[in-house]
Amino acid sequence: MVSALDQHQEQENFNWLASKVGYKDNVVNKAANVKNSQFAQPLFEFSGACAGCGETPYIKNITQLFGDRMMIANATGCSSIYGASFPASPYCTNAQGHGPAWQNSLFEDNAEFGLGMKIGSDRARETVANLMNQAIACECCSDEIKALAQQWLDNKEDGTVTREVADKIVPLLGECKCETCSRLLEYKHFIPARSQWIFGGDGWAYDIGYGGLDHVLASGKNVNVLVLDTEVYSNTGGQSSKSTPAGAIAKFAASGKKIRKKDLGMMAISYGYVYVAQVAMGASPAQYLNAIKEAEAYDGPSLIIAYAPCINHGLKAGMGLSQKEEKLAVECGYWHLYRYNPNLEAEGKNPFSLDSKEPDWTKFQDFLKGEVRFASLYKLFPERAQELLNLTE
Question: What's the predicted TM-score (pTM) here?
């Protein structure tokens, strides 16, 4: 045995890379396209998820776009385990010290927990707005502080502008000794517009936490929900959920699930004022990027349902090809890509857009046979296998 410190041979190179090279989102517009987004620093890195996990790439990309001002309410499950396994967390800060604020809540109340975060944040930002108005009227505040305060009031829900205002105004608040600036300094973390996210798996969203999720979506509040859909209770060993499709073998559905998957997306669309998207990053990174940008920009509740291959699926090609599995799922019609944007209806356009192409249904059964959760049905219940898998199709 030798000291672990002696084994850090690349630490010096890593430190040089981090301090001298850095990320390039100050050179390109990171939100412009998929390629540009990858020049930005992920504020979610080095997680302890299973190798090839289909969930973590979605979170990584969201933190690249909004991580410096995100608040995350995370339901118990895989995403809470790899999101905060003591004593470390993959969520981190950028060079300016900004990063996601993260907290975990239970299956049964996580959506309400996230809504509470949003309501509390909005109340604090109302105080910021009052103080900004006071600063404009204050004789002690400099013209620069007043100009920045007005800029904030004109763009208070714009994350990019309010972040820039915060970076400029906070040092000036420390120099001004008036009571208004002192109070504003206490609320400095609320100056940037918050991006409120609620993360959880299908066991939370489709089953145990569905009542709360439905309540939050129906509230009309501006929150973003990401459902990491593995179609099974992944973290507790692969039990069947309402997201599990017909024909799949899972715990409590050992002979193959007999009824179809719950359609959470279409249920949310029925409200008419909820932004809804169904995505699969491996099938179309561009469609996913568009969906998260539209969801975050939408002034109301947003729901993104993300297809996430899981080790419980038993991918015969191996978890190293989980992104390819997402592509195959869309090509054969197993999973569809779509967006429902209520803003388009207000413009007289169709709010629903089907983003995936006409499926090649001849590949559907081959796709199912490429995953143990379906293929094992032939070995265990050969007489029922084809009947159930035809039902799935």
Answer: 0.93
